[in-house]
Write a structure and sequence with these properties.
522 residues, alpha/beta, Leucine Aminopeptidase, subunit E, domain 1, Aminopeptidase, nine-stranded mixed sheet, seven-stranded mixed sheet, 16 helices
Length: 522
Amino acid sequence: MTRPQLPAQVAPPEFALSDHLPAAIVGVDVVALPVLAGSGEDGIALGPGAADLGDQLGLDLVGIAELQALTGAVGETALVAVPDGSAANPALRLVVLVGVGAGRVVDLRRAGAALARVVKDREAVATSVPAVAEDPAAGVEAFVVGAMLGSFGFHWRSTGPEQHPVRKVVLALGAGVGPARDVVERAVALGGAGWRSRQLATVPSNLKTPAWLAEQAEEIAAAAPDLTCRVWDEAELAREGFGGIVGVGQASESPPRLIRLDYVPSGVSGRALKKLPTVVLVGKGITFDSGGLSLKPGQSMVSMKRDMTGGAVVLSTMAALADLGCPVRVVGLVPAAENAVSGGALRPGDVVKHWGGRTSEVTNTDAEGRLVLADALAYAVAELDPTVIVDVATLTGAAKVALGQQVAGLFANDDVLADRLGAAGESAGEPLWRFPLYAGYADKLASKVADADNAPSGPGAIMAALFLQRFVGDVPWAHLDIASVGDVEKDWHEWTVGPSGFGARALLTWLASADPTEGIGA
Protein backbone atom coordinates (compact mmCIF):
# COMPACT_ATOMS: atom_id res chain seq x y z
CA MET A 1 0.00 0.00 0.00
CA THR A 2 1.35 3.43 -0.95
CA ARG A 3 2.13 5.58 2.05
CA PRO A 4 0.36 8.98 2.03
CA GLN A 5 2.56 12.07 1.92
CA LEU A 6 2.25 14.65 4.68
CA PRO A 7 2.14 18.12 3.11
CA ALA A 8 4.64 20.77 4.18
CA GLN A 9 3.68 22.22 7.55
CA VAL A 10 3.94 25.74 8.91
CA ALA A 11 7.01 26.61 10.98
CA PRO A 12 7.12 28.52 14.27
CA PRO A 13 8.31 32.14 14.24
CA GLU A 14 11.97 33.09 14.32
CA PHE A 15 13.09 35.18 17.30
CA ALA A 16 15.69 37.94 17.58
CA LEU A 17 16.86 40.20 20.42
CA SER A 18 17.40 43.94 20.15
CA ASP A 19 18.57 46.51 22.71
CA HIS A 20 16.35 49.10 21.02
CA LEU A 21 12.71 49.74 21.82
CA PRO A 22 10.00 48.85 19.26
CA ALA A 23 9.67 52.30 17.68
CA ALA A 24 13.30 52.09 16.56
CA ILE A 25 12.93 48.76 14.76
CA VAL A 26 12.70 49.34 11.02
CA GLY A 27 11.02 46.97 8.57
CA VAL A 28 8.48 45.34 10.88
CA ASP A 29 4.82 45.62 9.96
CA VAL A 30 3.57 45.18 13.54
CA VAL A 31 4.56 46.66 16.89
CA ALA A 32 3.16 45.11 20.08
CA LEU A 33 3.15 46.96 23.41
CA PRO A 34 2.26 45.72 26.89
CA VAL A 35 -0.77 47.09 28.71
CA LEU A 36 -0.31 47.28 32.47
CA ALA A 37 -3.24 47.33 34.87
CA GLY A 38 -3.30 50.26 37.29
CA SER A 39 -4.03 50.02 41.01
CA GLY A 40 -6.68 51.85 42.98
CA GLU A 41 -7.77 54.94 41.03
CA ASP A 42 -4.86 54.67 38.63
CA GLY A 43 -5.81 53.80 35.10
CA ILE A 44 -3.97 51.53 32.74
CA ALA A 45 -0.47 52.28 31.54
CA LEU A 46 1.47 51.17 28.49
CA GLY A 47 4.89 49.59 28.82
CA PRO A 48 8.31 50.44 27.42
CA GLY A 49 8.42 52.14 24.04
CA ALA A 50 4.82 53.35 23.98
CA ALA A 51 5.63 57.05 24.37
CA ASP A 52 8.15 57.07 21.53
CA LEU A 53 5.83 55.15 19.20
CA GLY A 54 2.88 57.39 20.06
CA ASP A 55 4.94 60.46 19.26
CA GLN A 56 6.05 59.00 15.92
CA LEU A 57 2.49 58.15 14.94
CA GLY A 58 0.81 61.22 16.45
CA LEU A 59 -1.49 58.97 18.45
CA ASP A 60 -2.59 58.94 22.08
CA LEU A 61 -2.12 55.22 22.57
CA VAL A 62 -3.18 55.30 26.23
CA GLY A 63 -6.36 57.07 25.24
CA ILE A 64 -7.02 54.51 22.50
CA ALA A 65 -6.51 51.69 25.01
CA GLU A 66 -8.99 53.32 27.41
CA LEU A 67 -11.48 53.92 24.59
CA GLN A 68 -11.32 50.20 23.77
CA ALA A 69 -11.97 49.43 27.46
CA LEU A 70 -8.70 47.61 27.99
CA THR A 71 -8.01 46.67 31.60
CA GLY A 72 -4.58 45.10 31.27
CA ALA A 73 -6.01 41.61 31.88
CA VAL A 74 -3.66 38.94 30.64
CA GLY A 75 -4.23 38.00 27.00
CA GLU A 76 -6.51 40.97 26.27
CA THR A 77 -5.66 42.54 22.89
CA ALA A 78 -6.65 45.59 20.86
CA LEU A 79 -5.59 46.36 17.30
CA VAL A 80 -4.74 49.87 16.11
CA ALA A 81 -4.41 50.23 12.34
CA VAL A 82 -1.70 52.59 11.07
CA PRO A 83 -2.10 52.33 7.28
CA ASP A 84 0.51 55.01 6.51
CA GLY A 85 3.20 53.69 8.86
CA SER A 86 5.55 56.20 10.46
CA ALA A 87 8.35 58.38 9.16
CA ALA A 88 10.87 56.13 10.91
CA ASN A 89 9.24 52.90 9.75
CA PRO A 90 7.08 53.18 6.61
CA ALA A 91 6.45 49.41 6.71
CA LEU A 92 4.44 49.64 9.96
CA ARG A 93 0.77 48.80 9.52
CA LEU A 94 -0.52 47.66 12.90
CA VAL A 95 -0.03 48.35 16.60
CA VAL A 96 -1.20 45.64 18.99
CA LEU A 97 -1.88 46.43 22.64
CA VAL A 98 -1.50 43.29 24.78
CA GLY A 99 -2.63 42.84 28.37
CA VAL A 100 0.09 41.37 30.60
CA GLY A 101 -1.88 40.90 33.81
CA ALA A 102 0.40 41.00 36.83
CA GLY A 103 3.50 40.40 34.69
CA ARG A 104 4.16 36.99 36.18
CA VAL A 105 5.89 34.26 34.19
CA VAL A 106 2.55 32.59 33.44
CA ASP A 107 1.09 35.93 32.38
CA LEU A 108 3.91 36.56 29.91
CA ARG A 109 3.54 33.09 28.43
CA ARG A 110 -0.16 33.74 27.90
CA ALA A 111 0.46 37.23 26.54
CA GLY A 112 2.88 35.74 24.01
CA ALA A 113 0.25 33.27 22.86
CA ALA A 114 -2.42 35.97 22.62
CA LEU A 115 -0.12 38.12 20.49
CA ALA A 116 0.76 35.18 18.24
CA ARG A 117 -2.90 34.60 17.41
CA VAL A 118 -3.58 38.17 16.26
CA VAL A 119 -0.43 38.56 14.14
CA LYS A 120 -0.76 35.43 12.02
CA ASP A 121 0.01 36.02 8.33
CA ARG A 122 2.12 39.06 9.25
CA GLU A 123 5.76 39.43 8.29
CA ALA A 124 7.40 40.64 11.51
CA VAL A 125 6.49 42.05 14.90
CA ALA A 126 8.63 44.07 17.28
CA THR A 127 7.55 43.94 20.91
CA SER A 128 8.56 45.08 24.37
CA VAL A 129 6.06 42.86 26.18
CA PRO A 130 8.72 40.74 28.02
CA ALA A 131 10.39 43.91 29.34
CA VAL A 132 7.73 44.24 32.07
CA ALA A 133 8.97 41.10 33.85
CA GLU A 134 10.89 41.51 37.10
CA ASP A 135 13.22 38.78 35.87
CA PRO A 136 13.94 39.51 32.18
CA ALA A 137 15.33 36.04 31.49
CA ALA A 138 12.26 34.26 32.89
CA GLY A 139 9.99 36.73 31.12
CA VAL A 140 11.65 36.24 27.75
CA GLU A 141 11.58 32.46 28.07
CA ALA A 142 7.90 32.41 28.96
CA PHE A 143 6.94 34.90 26.25
CA VAL A 144 8.85 33.06 23.52
CA VAL A 145 7.36 29.69 24.48
CA GLY A 146 3.87 31.19 24.51
CA ALA A 147 4.35 32.94 21.17
CA MET A 148 5.65 29.74 19.58
CA LEU A 149 2.89 27.47 20.83
CA GLY A 150 0.13 30.01 20.27
CA SER A 151 1.27 30.01 16.62
CA PHE A 152 0.91 26.25 16.19
CA GLY A 153 -0.94 24.96 13.19
CA PHE A 154 -1.40 21.68 11.34
CA HIS A 155 -3.08 21.02 8.02
CA TRP A 156 -3.66 18.40 5.36
CA ARG A 157 -5.53 20.60 2.89
CA SER A 158 -5.06 20.53 -0.84
CA THR A 159 -4.95 24.33 -0.80
CA GLY A 160 -2.31 24.64 1.92
CA PRO A 161 -2.55 26.01 5.47
CA GLU A 162 -5.32 28.51 6.21
CA GLN A 163 -2.93 30.71 8.20
CA HIS A 164 0.81 31.08 8.77
CA PRO A 165 2.56 32.14 11.98
CA VAL A 166 4.18 35.56 11.93
CA ARG A 167 7.57 35.01 10.32
CA LYS A 168 9.73 36.88 12.84
CA VAL A 169 9.42 38.27 16.37
CA VAL A 170 11.92 40.93 17.48
CA LEU A 171 12.22 41.20 21.26
CA ALA A 172 12.87 44.94 21.47
CA LEU A 173 13.48 45.37 25.18
CA GLY A 174 15.68 48.45 25.38
CA ALA A 175 19.28 48.95 26.41
CA GLY A 176 20.38 46.98 29.46
CA VAL A 177 17.12 45.04 29.74
CA GLY A 178 17.52 42.09 27.42
CA PRO A 179 18.95 38.80 28.71
CA ALA A 180 21.74 36.87 27.03
CA ARG A 181 20.94 35.31 23.69
CA ASP A 182 21.27 31.83 25.16
CA VAL A 183 18.04 32.52 27.05
CA VAL A 184 16.24 32.93 23.74
CA GLU A 185 17.88 29.75 22.45
CA ARG A 186 16.73 27.86 25.55
CA ALA A 187 13.19 29.22 25.11
CA VAL A 188 13.13 28.19 21.44
CA ALA A 189 14.25 24.68 22.43
CA LEU A 190 11.49 24.42 25.04
CA GLY A 191 8.82 25.79 22.74
CA GLY A 192 10.12 23.65 19.89
CA ALA A 193 9.76 20.50 21.98
CA GLY A 194 6.15 21.41 22.72
CA TRP A 195 5.59 22.11 19.01
CA ARG A 196 7.15 18.79 17.92
CA SER A 197 5.19 16.71 20.43
CA ARG A 198 1.96 18.45 19.42
CA GLN A 199 2.69 17.92 15.73
CA LEU A 200 3.54 14.24 16.12
CA ALA A 201 0.36 13.69 18.11
CA THR A 202 -1.71 15.42 15.43
CA VAL A 203 -0.47 13.42 12.41
CA PRO A 204 -3.31 11.11 11.25
CA SER A 205 -2.87 7.39 11.75
CA ASN A 206 -3.11 6.49 8.07
CA LEU A 207 0.46 7.83 7.97
CA LYS A 208 1.50 7.50 11.61
CA THR A 209 2.20 3.79 11.97
CA PRO A 210 4.69 2.34 14.48
CA ALA A 211 7.26 2.11 11.67
CA TRP A 212 6.70 5.77 10.74
CA LEU A 213 7.14 6.80 14.37
CA ALA A 214 10.41 4.85 14.47
CA GLU A 215 11.54 6.70 11.35
CA GLN A 216 10.90 10.01 13.11
CA ALA A 217 13.12 8.83 15.96
CA GLU A 218 15.87 7.89 13.54
CA GLU A 219 15.67 11.33 11.92
CA ILE A 220 15.86 13.00 15.34
CA ALA A 221 18.96 10.98 16.22
CA ALA A 222 20.60 11.71 12.86
CA ALA A 223 20.18 15.45 13.46
CA ALA A 224 21.60 15.40 17.01
CA PRO A 225 25.23 14.38 17.59
CA ASP A 226 24.52 13.47 21.22
CA LEU A 227 21.79 10.94 20.34
CA THR A 228 21.86 7.36 19.10
CA CYS A 229 18.88 5.26 18.04
CA ARG A 230 17.95 1.59 18.00
CA VAL A 231 14.66 0.13 16.75
CA TRP A 232 13.31 -3.39 17.37
CA ASP A 233 11.05 -4.75 14.62
CA GLU A 234 8.26 -7.26 15.20
CA ALA A 235 10.50 -10.30 14.75
CA GLU A 236 13.06 -9.02 17.25
CA LEU A 237 10.32 -8.12 19.71
CA ALA A 238 8.88 -11.63 19.55
CA ARG A 239 12.30 -13.27 19.77
CA GLU A 240 13.36 -11.21 22.80
CA GLY A 241 10.12 -11.70 24.72
CA PHE A 242 8.34 -8.34 24.51
CA GLY A 243 4.96 -10.07 24.77
CA GLY A 244 2.95 -7.02 25.73
CA ILE A 245 4.03 -4.99 22.71
CA VAL A 246 3.66 -7.95 20.37
CA GLY A 247 0.24 -8.87 21.75
CA VAL A 248 -1.23 -5.38 21.46
CA GLY A 249 0.13 -4.95 17.93
CA GLN A 250 -0.63 -8.39 16.53
CA ALA A 251 -3.98 -7.48 14.94
CA SER A 252 -2.65 -4.60 12.87
CA GLU A 253 -1.31 -4.61 9.32
CA SER A 254 1.27 -2.15 10.69
CA PRO A 255 3.49 -4.23 13.00
CA PRO A 256 4.82 -2.92 16.31
CA ARG A 257 8.16 -1.37 17.12
CA LEU A 258 10.21 -0.56 20.19
CA ILE A 259 12.19 2.66 19.85
CA ARG A 260 15.24 3.47 21.96
CA LEU A 261 17.07 6.82 21.94
CA ASP A 262 20.23 7.32 24.04
CA TYR A 263 21.52 10.75 25.08
CA VAL A 264 24.95 11.36 26.58
CA PRO A 265 26.05 14.91 27.46
CA SER A 266 28.61 16.27 25.02
CA GLY A 267 32.21 15.50 25.93
CA VAL A 268 31.40 12.91 28.62
CA SER A 269 32.96 9.46 28.19
CA GLY A 270 34.88 6.72 29.95
CA ARG A 271 34.91 6.75 33.75
CA ALA A 272 32.97 10.02 33.90
CA LEU A 273 30.15 8.49 31.86
CA LYS A 274 29.95 5.48 34.18
CA LYS A 275 29.46 7.82 37.14
CA LEU A 276 26.62 9.75 35.50
CA PRO A 277 23.09 9.07 36.72
CA THR A 278 20.77 7.53 34.13
CA VAL A 279 17.22 8.77 33.68
CA VAL A 280 14.91 6.54 31.62
CA LEU A 281 11.86 8.05 29.96
CA VAL A 282 9.15 5.69 28.69
CA GLY A 283 6.38 6.98 26.44
CA LYS A 284 3.26 5.12 25.38
CA GLY A 285 3.27 4.88 21.59
CA ILE A 286 -0.16 3.56 20.58
CA THR A 287 -0.42 5.08 17.12
CA PHE A 288 -4.15 4.38 16.98
CA ASP A 289 -6.40 2.85 19.59
CA SER A 290 -9.62 1.22 18.45
CA GLY A 291 -9.93 -0.49 21.82
CA GLY A 292 -9.26 -3.83 20.14
CA LEU A 293 -12.01 -6.42 20.57
CA SER A 294 -13.15 -4.45 23.63
CA LEU A 295 -14.15 -1.89 21.01
CA LYS A 296 -14.46 1.79 21.86
CA PRO A 297 -17.63 3.66 20.89
CA GLY A 298 -17.20 5.37 17.52
CA GLN A 299 -17.05 8.91 18.88
CA SER A 300 -14.39 7.89 21.41
CA MET A 301 -12.11 6.75 18.56
CA VAL A 302 -12.05 10.11 16.80
CA SER A 303 -9.15 11.47 18.85
CA MET A 304 -7.24 8.19 19.17
CA LYS A 305 -4.53 9.18 16.69
CA ARG A 306 -3.12 11.03 19.69
CA ASP A 307 -2.86 7.93 21.90
CA MET A 308 0.88 8.02 21.26
CA THR A 309 1.25 11.45 22.89
CA GLY A 310 3.46 9.95 25.61
CA GLY A 311 5.78 8.63 22.91
CA ALA A 312 5.73 12.01 21.15
CA VAL A 313 6.67 13.70 24.42
CA VAL A 314 9.61 11.33 24.94
CA LEU A 315 10.89 11.77 21.37
CA SER A 316 10.55 15.57 21.59
CA THR A 317 12.24 15.68 24.98
CA MET A 318 15.15 13.59 23.76
CA ALA A 319 15.57 15.86 20.72
CA ALA A 320 15.98 18.96 22.91
CA LEU A 321 18.25 17.64 25.69
CA ALA A 322 21.51 18.82 24.14
CA ASP A 323 20.13 22.29 23.38
CA LEU A 324 19.18 22.69 27.03
CA GLY A 325 22.44 21.27 28.40
CA CYS A 326 20.96 18.30 30.25
CA PRO A 327 23.77 17.09 32.56
CA VAL A 328 22.74 13.43 32.97
CA ARG A 329 22.48 10.40 30.72
CA VAL A 330 18.94 9.89 29.40
CA VAL A 331 17.44 6.88 27.62
CA GLY A 332 14.09 7.25 25.89
CA LEU A 333 11.95 4.18 25.20
CA VAL A 334 8.80 4.25 23.08
CA PRO A 335 6.87 0.96 22.76
CA ALA A 336 4.83 1.58 19.61
CA ALA A 337 1.85 -0.43 18.37
CA GLU A 338 -1.54 0.00 16.74
CA ASN A 339 -4.40 -1.49 18.77
CA ALA A 340 -6.52 -2.77 15.89
CA VAL A 341 -9.24 -5.35 15.27
CA SER A 342 -8.81 -8.46 13.11
CA GLY A 343 -9.05 -12.23 13.29
CA GLY A 344 -5.65 -12.23 14.97
CA ALA A 345 -6.54 -9.69 17.65
CA LEU A 346 -5.75 -10.12 21.31
CA ARG A 347 -8.85 -11.51 23.05
CA PRO A 348 -10.29 -10.85 26.50
CA GLY A 349 -9.02 -13.74 28.61
CA ASP A 350 -5.72 -14.09 26.75
CA VAL A 351 -2.50 -14.07 28.77
CA VAL A 352 0.59 -12.19 27.61
CA LYS A 353 4.11 -12.77 28.87
CA HIS A 354 6.08 -9.57 29.36
CA TRP A 355 9.79 -8.99 28.93
CA GLY A 356 11.40 -10.59 31.97
CA GLY A 357 8.71 -13.21 32.53
CA ARG A 358 5.76 -11.63 34.35
CA THR A 359 2.35 -12.45 32.92
CA SER A 360 -0.85 -10.46 32.55
CA GLU A 361 -4.39 -11.67 31.96
CA VAL A 362 -6.02 -9.37 29.43
CA THR A 363 -9.56 -8.83 30.67
CA ASN A 364 -9.94 -5.63 28.62
CA THR A 365 -8.11 -5.13 25.33
CA ASP A 366 -8.76 -1.38 25.63
CA ALA A 367 -6.38 -1.31 28.60
CA GLU A 368 -3.53 -1.86 26.15
CA GLY A 369 -1.25 1.03 27.09
CA ARG A 370 -0.16 -0.53 30.36
CA LEU A 371 0.69 -3.77 28.53
CA VAL A 372 3.22 -2.10 26.23
CA LEU A 373 4.57 0.15 28.97
CA ALA A 374 5.13 -2.87 31.21
CA ASP A 375 7.51 -4.42 28.68
CA ALA A 376 9.52 -1.22 28.37
CA LEU A 377 9.65 -0.66 32.14
CA ALA A 378 10.82 -4.23 32.82
CA TYR A 379 13.49 -3.93 30.14
CA ALA A 380 14.67 -0.59 31.55
CA VAL A 381 15.04 -1.91 35.09
CA ALA A 382 16.95 -5.02 34.04
CA GLU A 383 19.14 -3.63 31.27
CA LEU A 384 19.73 0.10 31.81
CA ASP A 385 20.64 0.42 35.51
CA PRO A 386 18.33 3.42 35.88
CA THR A 387 18.66 6.00 38.62
CA VAL A 388 15.14 7.24 37.87
CA ILE A 389 12.34 6.11 35.56
CA VAL A 390 9.50 8.36 34.38
CA ASP A 391 6.76 7.08 32.10
CA VAL A 392 4.31 9.29 30.21
CA ALA A 393 1.02 8.03 28.80
CA THR A 394 -2.50 9.00 27.78
CA LEU A 395 -3.53 6.07 29.92
CA THR A 396 -6.92 6.32 31.60
CA GLY A 397 -10.20 8.12 31.12
CA ALA A 398 -10.43 8.09 34.91
CA ALA A 399 -7.70 10.74 35.07
CA LYS A 400 -9.88 13.07 33.01
CA VAL A 401 -12.90 12.39 35.23
CA ALA A 402 -10.84 13.33 38.28
CA LEU A 403 -8.89 16.28 36.91
CA GLY A 404 -10.74 17.81 33.99
CA GLN A 405 -8.68 18.97 31.03
CA GLN A 406 -6.15 21.44 32.41
CA VAL A 407 -3.96 19.36 34.73
CA ALA A 408 -2.33 15.93 34.38
CA GLY A 409 -2.04 13.13 36.92
CA LEU A 410 1.23 12.30 38.67
CA PHE A 411 2.04 9.12 40.58
CA ALA A 412 5.42 8.53 42.20
CA ASN A 413 7.08 6.13 44.64
CA ASP A 414 9.59 8.81 45.66
CA ASP A 415 8.60 12.11 47.29
CA VAL A 416 11.60 14.06 46.05
CA LEU A 417 10.96 12.97 42.47
CA ALA A 418 7.29 13.92 42.79
CA ASP A 419 8.22 17.34 44.15
CA ARG A 420 10.77 17.94 41.38
CA LEU A 421 8.32 17.02 38.63
CA GLY A 422 5.51 19.00 40.21
CA ALA A 423 7.68 22.12 40.46
CA ALA A 424 8.93 21.69 36.89
CA GLY A 425 5.39 21.32 35.58
CA GLU A 426 4.23 24.42 37.41
CA SER A 427 7.16 26.45 36.10
CA ALA A 428 6.74 25.21 32.53
CA GLY A 429 2.99 25.72 32.33
CA GLU A 430 2.16 22.00 32.36
CA PRO A 431 0.68 21.46 35.83
CA LEU A 432 0.66 18.04 37.49
CA TRP A 433 -1.48 16.84 40.41
CA ARG A 434 -0.18 13.99 42.56
CA PHE A 435 -2.43 10.96 43.07
CA PRO A 436 -1.87 8.32 45.76
CA LEU A 437 -0.29 4.95 44.99
CA TYR A 438 -2.64 3.46 47.54
CA ALA A 439 -1.47 -0.05 48.37
CA GLY A 440 -4.87 -1.00 49.79
CA TYR A 441 -6.15 -1.46 46.25
CA ALA A 442 -3.28 -3.73 45.14
CA ASP A 443 -5.16 -6.97 45.82
CA LYS A 444 -7.63 -6.00 43.09
CA LEU A 445 -4.89 -6.75 40.55
CA ALA A 446 -5.06 -10.45 41.36
CA SER A 447 -5.79 -12.83 38.50
CA LYS A 448 -6.78 -16.48 38.80
CA VAL A 449 -4.53 -17.47 35.90
CA ALA A 450 -1.71 -14.89 35.64
CA ASP A 451 0.46 -12.62 37.75
CA ALA A 452 -1.97 -9.70 37.28
CA ASP A 453 -5.25 -8.63 35.72
CA ASN A 454 -4.73 -5.75 33.28
CA ALA A 455 -8.12 -4.12 33.95
CA PRO A 456 -9.52 -4.84 37.41
CA SER A 457 -12.36 -2.91 38.97
CA GLY A 458 -11.55 0.05 41.19
CA PRO A 459 -10.33 3.63 40.74
CA GLY A 460 -9.08 3.49 37.17
CA ALA A 461 -6.08 5.81 37.23
CA ILE A 462 -4.77 4.36 40.50
CA MET A 463 -5.26 0.77 39.36
CA ALA A 464 -3.29 1.44 36.18
CA ALA A 465 -0.45 3.01 38.17
CA LEU A 466 -0.39 0.10 40.62
CA PHE A 467 -0.20 -2.31 37.67
CA LEU A 468 2.83 -0.46 36.27
CA GLN A 469 4.50 -0.15 39.66
CA ARG A 470 5.05 -3.91 39.78
CA PHE A 471 7.43 -3.62 36.83
CA VAL A 472 9.78 -1.02 38.35
CA GLY A 473 10.68 -2.75 41.62
CA ASP A 474 12.41 -0.36 44.00
CA VAL A 475 13.72 2.02 41.33
CA PRO A 476 12.55 5.63 41.91
CA TRP A 477 9.72 6.02 39.43
CA ALA A 478 7.01 8.43 38.37
CA HIS A 479 4.04 7.86 36.12
CA LEU A 480 2.42 10.79 34.30
CA ASP A 481 -1.13 10.01 33.23
CA ILE A 482 -1.77 12.73 30.66
CA ALA A 483 -5.07 11.39 29.31
CA SER A 484 -6.85 14.26 31.04
CA VAL A 485 -4.92 16.84 29.01
CA GLY A 486 -4.48 14.85 25.80
CA ASP A 487 -7.03 16.87 23.84
CA VAL A 488 -7.74 20.62 23.76
CA GLU A 489 -11.35 21.52 22.92
CA LYS A 490 -10.82 25.23 22.24
CA ASP A 491 -7.88 27.63 21.93
CA TRP A 492 -6.82 28.51 25.46
CA HIS A 493 -3.66 30.54 26.13
CA GLU A 494 -0.74 28.63 24.56
CA TRP A 495 -2.90 25.55 23.91
CA THR A 496 -4.47 25.11 20.46
CA VAL A 497 -7.44 22.94 19.47
CA GLY A 498 -6.49 19.30 18.99
CA PRO A 499 -3.87 17.02 20.52
CA SER A 500 -1.91 18.87 23.20
CA GLY A 501 1.52 17.21 23.20
CA PHE A 502 1.48 17.87 26.97
CA GLY A 503 4.57 16.98 28.99
CA ALA A 504 7.72 17.82 27.04
CA ARG A 505 8.17 21.25 28.63
CA ALA A 506 7.75 19.86 32.15
CA LEU A 507 10.25 17.04 31.58
CA LEU A 508 12.79 19.35 29.97
CA THR A 509 12.50 21.92 32.74
CA TRP A 510 13.34 19.16 35.21
CA LEU A 511 16.08 17.52 33.14
CA ALA A 512 17.79 20.81 32.32
CA SER A 513 18.23 21.69 35.99
CA ALA A 514 21.71 21.62 37.52
CA ASP A 515 21.30 18.17 39.11
CA PRO A 516 18.01 16.51 38.12
CA THR A 517 18.48 13.39 40.27
CA GLU A 518 19.84 15.00 43.44
CA GLY A 519 18.16 13.59 46.53
CA ILE A 520 16.01 11.13 44.61
CA GLY A 521 16.12 7.63 46.05
CA ALA A 522 18.02 8.77 49.13
